[in-house]
Design goal:
With 402 residues, the protein is of the alpha+beta class. It has helices at 117-126, 144-149, 172-187, 200-217, 223-237, 281-296, 302-305, 370-385, 387-390, 396-399; strands at 2-6, 16-22, 29-30, 35-40, 45-49, 54-58, 65-67, 71-76, 190-198, 243-246, 249-252, 258-260, 262-264, 267-269, 272-273, 310-314, 333-337, 340-347, 350-364. The strands form five sheets. Strands 9, 12, 15, 16, 17, 18 and 19 form a seven-stranded mixed beta sheet that branches. It is elongated and about 75 Å long. The relative contact order is 0.13.
Length: 402
């Protein structure tokens, strides 16, 4: 029996995906539920599992954009499993820090291959040869998209020893992120306001309670719980920041879903901490850990990245001193965290050395006024510099559930 495997729907509003990588070869014997391919949507990279055991025939090439419901491979379920055969998965995983996942860009290059008929036509119109284009399809085949993107050379390339170039196709996820970033810059009246936070009180609390907290709850007492709860408090004080523009209306929320910007194996991801206003320090840290692990293992789903009413981005783990984060549409605000540096500051007329973090709030000026944006960031600063009173109700043990 020949089974047709079709592309399942990865989520609402997604109509097509891209074959990022086949994890098996044409003619391989595959087991039921074995991961046979990675597919990129505009929101996440997902694995495609085999629906049955048998010999596989591939019907799409790496780099092809395929519609949801389109047949991408055939499985001959009547085929017998070859003795002693093993299938291997080629997916590489990357290491994760607390909420950031660092990756090393691929240096893989592609050999030039025979162009598809559609690619041939486009190259002919441009007066180009297939040998001038590096193919990104299977076995280096020049795809239609390669031909569309190909640019005729303005002159003879100079071959100098020790100088080389490589070309790799952007994933659908990476391309979608690029589109959304440009969209955010072009469609919002984005401004950024800055402030600085003395992190001494949080340093003191973590030093005193981090071991007991980890022993009791199995997670570390990090900075994200303090920042998330400070954001919750500030959003409740300034609800316009927890709003979005929907046509000619302003849509406000009475809950706080915090998107946390994560650099994952396939690009930027923004998993969401749901109902952060109902979570404790333990709840926030547990959710951050869960999402970080899922990001590291490539298991983040579209549902886990859908929604969000406000975003927190932590560029500090990479050493960023200051930045102007870009709004994550259709949200209206994003808070940028940065690295913590010991700086001389004036305290009661005397110079002291304190651990200082610069923070930045980018906001959509169409619905958030300067007074609200500055007030919001000041409220975040106040909560972080006085966490016992403003975030813990003067009862540290109870707040940390110790």
């Amino acid at each position: 029996m020949i089974l047709e495997m079709k592309v399942p729907s990865p989520g609402e509003s997604i109509t097509e995906v891209e074959i990022a990588e086949w994890l098996v070869e044409d003619g391989d014997y595959v087991e039921k539920d074995q991961a046979i391919a990675e597919v990129d949507s505009d929101k996440a990279t997902l694995e495609l599992p085999a629906e049955a055991s048998g010999t596989i025939t591939l019907k799409a090439e790496e780099g092809d954009a395929v519609a949801v419901g389109q047949v991408v491979c055939l499985i001959d379920t009547s085929a017998a499993k070859p003795e002693g055969s093993e299938t291997t998965k080629k997916l590489e995983k990357t290491e994760v820090s607390q909420i950031e996942v660092k990756t090393v860009p691929s240096s893989e290059t592609y050999a030039t291959g025979t162009p598809s008929p559609a690619a041939n036509k486009i190259l002919a119109e441009k007066g180009m040869e297939a040998s001038q284009v590096k193919g990104t399809g299977r076995d280096g085949r020049v795809t239609k998209e390669d031909a569309v993107k190909a640019v005729p050379s303005m002159g003879q390339e100079v071959n100098v020893e020790g100088r080389g170039t490589s070309r790799s196709k952007m994933s659908m996820l990476r391309r979608k992120v690029a589109e959304r970033l440009v969209e955010a810059k072009n469609t919002t009246a984005m401004l950024t306001t800055f402030n600085e936070v003395d992190m001494s009180p949080i340093f003191d609390l973590r030093k005193q309670y981090k071991e007991e907290f980890k022993e009791k709850h199995g997670v570390s007492l990090g900075f994200m719980s303090f920042f998330s709860l400070a954001v919750v408090r500030a959003l409740q004080m300034y609800p316009a920041v927890n709003s979005m523009i929907d046509g000619k209306e302003m849509l406000s929320y009475d809950f706080v879903d915090i998107s946390i910007a994560v650099s994952g194996p396939k690009g930027l991801m923004v998993p969401v901490i749901r109902n952060a206003e109902k979570l404790s320090f333990r709840g926030i840290e547990s959710e951050v850990k869960r999402l970080a692990i899922r990001a590291r293992d490539g298991q983040i789903t579209v549902d886990e990245m859908t929604g969000g009413t406000f975003t927190i981005s932590n560029g500090g783990v990479f050493g960023s001193m200051l930045s102007t984060p870009i709004i994550n549409p259709p949200q209206s605000g994003i808070l940028g965290m940065h690295n913590i540096v010991e700086r001389p500051v004036a305290i009661n007329g005397k110079v002291e050395i304190r651990p200082i973090m610069f923070v930045a709030l980018s906001y959509d000026h169409r619905i958030i006024d300067g007074k609200e944006s500055v007030g919001f960031l000041v409220a975040v600063k106040e909560a972080l510099e006085n966490p016992i009173e403003l975030l813990m109700n003067n009862d540290v043990k109870k707040a940390l559930e110790l």
